[in-house]
Write a structure and sequence with these properties.
Elements: H1 2-13, E1 45-46, H2 49-60, E2 65-67, H3 71-80, E3 85-86, E4 88-89, E5 99-102, E6 108-110, E7 125-127, E8 131-132, H4 134-138, H5 141-144, H6 154-159, E9 164-167, H7 172-187, E10 194-197, E11 201-202, H8 219-226, H9 228-238, E12 245-246, H10 252-255, H11 257-277, H12 295-315, H13 328-331, H14 337-359, H15 361-365, H16 369-389, H17 394-402, H18 428-431, H19 439-455, E13 464-469, H20 475-480, H21 482-489, E14 491-495, E15 504-508, E16 514-518, H22 525-550, H23 553-558, H24 561-577
Parallel strand pairs: 2-10, 9-10, 11-12, 13-14
Antiparallel strand pairs: 1-3, 4-8, 5-6, 5-7, 13-16, 15-16
Length: 578
């Protein structure tokens, strides 16, 4: 309306040359959606180039590292093109800018204490009405929370500098870079040596969760339904380095099922294990002679060592090497939280529960010295697993840990030592002994027999006969572990020089041994043979067509190399299967 009135006035006066339409962007308030009118006003600025110089150098010379490393280029680009910082904000709340004006003499005074009168003429002094930018207060966070500007503060001396800052990448410049600048300016050193920039939680439409969109998830709702451990596990197990986490705010059941399932599994593992071990004290594994350990014992202890090593590697070094600078080898390592979670999960679920705990059932039910060894190893392995898991599932792990034998009521898992690899504490003679001593061969045999039972739909309660034709080096192993393999695979296992001649299922193990399960009396052999003949004929037909394509020079010459290689690999696989 105003534009139309002005145009009419200019037209009447003969001063209107022409009218043109220009499309432009008009800012609107994100809260009330009204037009934001620009207005010129005096602002306070901080000169940034001198402050940015040491912060830029600290990243370049590896005193500070950014993870993921791709953000380093963004950080350097911002600081190389640094502009002075406008710290004035026209808001009703915040820290008032500590500047006073005297209307009588025109003096402008910056003061640490509030002024009532002008220091020059004694006239009335009024404070600047603007407040400081929020980030101007926040950039002091690493020091102001520890007693600064009192540089003799005990907290400041004890806790500055810290180690790792964990935050989101969108405030890399607004907060992270400015905290580094403030640290160098006021303390002479960086506030931390590592900046971990995690991903963002988003909904299934890839929108960032926020109150404005109304697409957020209240963590307390998740805690009430599934527990705090389930919430923590779901987020940490999904948060790859710099990877966003996708969660459905409309389906919490689906979103947090991984955490709920793992928490339930861990609790059930603990309850079952504790019921078999009993409350009596157990011996320390370090005090048990190596010769008293079974293959399964040595295997699970080796797997615990491996899990500790994998978790340590995923978490990475706690601090830079000597000299305070990250070398090339350590610069991009660590803080792979999802890899740490997976290494701990795999040990307690796939190895401790699925294999070792199952293998010790008979030993735990039979009183004697071997039962004591099994109890000691089982408690030691589960203790190590709970220590690895405590940072992710602190409540369940703490509860189970207190129920283990040899635990004092005043001990806390949260304060217990991080597990270390047993291999570093063993004697030279013990180190020369293989840690698994062939238990992987036992696992392969059990898995092969279980797969045969599944392929031929053998009922779980049916006991089958199996024959192993070993390599010379594994003959003694299979003879000694036949009872254990039979118990785990629901079969009777015998060791033979050659495979039986009757109809049977055959599996070749990775070590060269062969597992044979006779099928007579278990399945309809004639029907099974007919099925396999039909499958072989179909596969043979497909293989002929594939070979014809590969013998066609035009296809081989015109197709992409990766396509040809994929077809050649398929031909090899199908030939082996046939």
């Amino acid at each position: 309306e105003a534009r139309a009135q002005i145009a009419a006035m200019l037209r009447e006066s003969g001063h209107l040359v022409r009218e043109e339409r220009h499309q432009h962007s008009v800012r609107h308030c994100y809260r009330c959606d009204t037009v934001v009118e620009p207005r010129l006003s005096d602002q306070w600025f901080v000169r940034m180039e001198p402050l940015a110089r040491p912060a830029l150098a600290a990243v370049r010379d590896r005193r500070i590292r950014l993870l993921p490393e791709r953000w380093e280029a963004v950080y350097i680009n911002w600081l190389e093109g640094i502009r002075d910082w406008n710290i004035s904000r026209q808001l009703w709340w915040g820290h008032r800018i500590p500047v006073w004006y005297c209307d009588a003499c025109g003096r402008v005074t910056a003061s640490r204490t509030d002024l009532v009168t002008c220091p020059a003429c004694g006239g009335a002094a009024r404070q600047d009405e603007d407040v400081l930018d929020t980030w101007f207060s926040s950039w002091l966070f690493p020091i102001s929370t520890l007693g600064w500007p009192d540089e003799t503060s005990a907290d400041l001396r004890a806790f500055y500098p810290s180690d790792v800052l964990v935050t989101a990448p969108e405030i890399l410049f607004f907060w992270v870079a400015r905290m580094i600048m403030a640290g160098f300016e006021f303390m002479g050193e960086a506030p931390f040596h590592t900046v971990y920039l995690h991903g963002t939680v988003r909904d299934m439409q890839h929108r960032k969760m926020s109150k404005s969109f109304g697409n957020g998830i209240d963590p307390l709702d998740v805690v009430r339904q599934y527990g705090a451990d389930a919430l923590r596990w779901t987020l940490i197990s999904k948060i790859g380095l710099g990877v966003d986490v996708m969660l459905d705010p409309d389906d919490l059941e689906e979103a947090f099922a991984p955490g709920r399932n793992f928490a339930t599994k861990l609790w059930n593992i603990g309850r079952f294990l504790l019921s078999r071990v009993g409350p009596e004290p157990v011996a320390q594994v370090a005090a048990i002679e190596e010769g008293r350990l079974t293959r399964a014992d040595r295997w699970i202890l080796a797997r615990l060592d491996q899990a500790v090593a994998e978790c340590d590697a995923a978490l990475g070094p706690a601090r830079p090497p000597a000299g305070g600078r990250w070398d090339a080898a350590a610069l991009g390592t660590g803080l792979r939280l999802n890899e740490y979670a997976e290494a701990a999960r795999r040990f307690v679920w796939n190895e401790l529960a699925d294999w070792y705990l199952e293998s010790t059932k008979t030993r735990l039910a039979t009183p004697g010295a071997d039962r004591d060894v099994a109890r000691a190893v089982l408690v030691h392995a589960f203790d190590g697993a709970l220590r690895l898991l405590q940072p992710i599932v602190p409540f369940i792990s703490e509860t189970l840990w207190h129920r283990l034998p040899n635990r004092d009521d005043d001990e806390l898992l949260a304060l217990a030592r991080w597990p270390v690899r047993r291999a570093g504490q063993r004697s030279d003679a013990a180190r020369r002994m293989p840690d698994d001593s062939g238990f992987e061969d036992v696992r392969d045999a059990v898995s092969a027999i279980r797969q045969i039972r599944s392929d031929y739909a053998v009922p779980p309660a049916t006991l089958v006969s199996a024959v192993v034709v070993p390599q010379p080096v594994t003959r003694g192993l299979f003879a000694e572990e036949a009872a254990l393999i039979g118990s785990l695979a629901r079969c009777t296992l015998s060791v033979a020089e050659q495979a039986p001649r009757e109809a049977a299922a055959h599996v070749l193990l990775s070590g060269g041994a062969e597992i044979v399960v006779p099928l007579a009396g278990i399945v309809d052999v004639d029907k099974e043979c007919a099925r396999l003949r039909g499958e072989a004929e179909q596969l043979s037909t497909q293989l002929d067509k594939l070979r014809g394509r590969l013998e066609n020079d035009q296809f081989v010459q015109r197709a992409r190399a990766d396509v040809v290689e994929a077809e050649q690999q398929k031909e090899r696989d199908w030939t082996e299967r046939l």
